[in-house]
Design a protein that fits this description.
The protein is 28% helix and 23% strand. The protein has 179 residues and is an alpha+beta fold. Strands 3-2-1-8-4-5-6-7 form an eight-stranded mixed beta sheet, covered by helices on one side. Strand 1 and strand 2 form a beta hairpin. The chain starts with a helix and ends with a strand. It has two domains: 36 residues; 136 residues, L,D-transpeptidase catalytic domain-like (Beta Barrel). It is built from four helices and eight strands; from the N terminus they run H-H-E-E-E-E-E-H-E-E-H-E.
Length: 179
């Protein structure tokens, strides 16, 4: 019985385009399997006082990064130039591969509340808050950058970590920045 099935299968292989069909099936299975192995984050959590950023999927932590923040990390960003990193719920809404840093992913700061608060003081809330790698030309600094907070309000990681985040986090992913 098995021998007859094998013979039938081999006879099918002799038909035109059958090889192409089988190769297409194998490629499709390989592509699907490789993409299933990539863990995509469905949420990013930043805990400022611990200087840590977590990528999560279905409430499970899939990656943890040590980070640097704005030069004045205490408190919520209120106005342009205060060198604070915002706190609250935002969205990672677009990417900048051509940033003055290695790579950058934009955080949707300011939201309506941030704008209203800054305007009530007659000020601009600022913007261009990102998760980014190191400044161009400073890749050799690597993890040493974590010794102190040095950004103007952004969240900084090493370039290698930024490559990983770039692959694991899609545009539209929510980010929760906690004190």
């Amino acid at each position: 019985m098995i021998r007859i099935s094998i013979i039938r299968f081999l006879s099918v292989l002799r038909r035109p385009f059958c090889h192409l069909f089988i190769v297409s099936i194998i490629v499709l299975i390989s592509f699907t399997a490789s993409h299933a192995l990539i863990e995509r984050a469905d949420r990013v959590i930043v805990i400022k006082h611990k200087r840590v950023m977590l990528l999560t999927q279905n409430s499970s932590i899939i990656r943890t990064y040590k980070i640097s923040l704005g030069k004045k990390p205490e408190g919520h960003k209120q106005i342009e130039g205060d060198q604070r990193t915002p706190e609250g719920m935002y969205t990672l809404d677009y990417r900048k591969p051509d940033s003055k840093f290695y790579k950058a992913i934009h955080i949707s700061y300011p939201n309506e509340d941030d704008m209203r608060s800054a305007r009530s003081n007659g000020r601009s809330p600022g913007g261009q808050i990102m998760i980014h790698g190191l400044p161009k030309g400073y890749a050799d600094v690597d993890k040493v950058h974590r010794i102190y907070d040095w950004t103007d309000g952004c969240i900084a990681v090493t370039n290698g970590e930024m490559d990983e985040i770039w692959e694991l986090v899609a545009d539209g992913t929510p980010i929760d920045i906690q004190p």
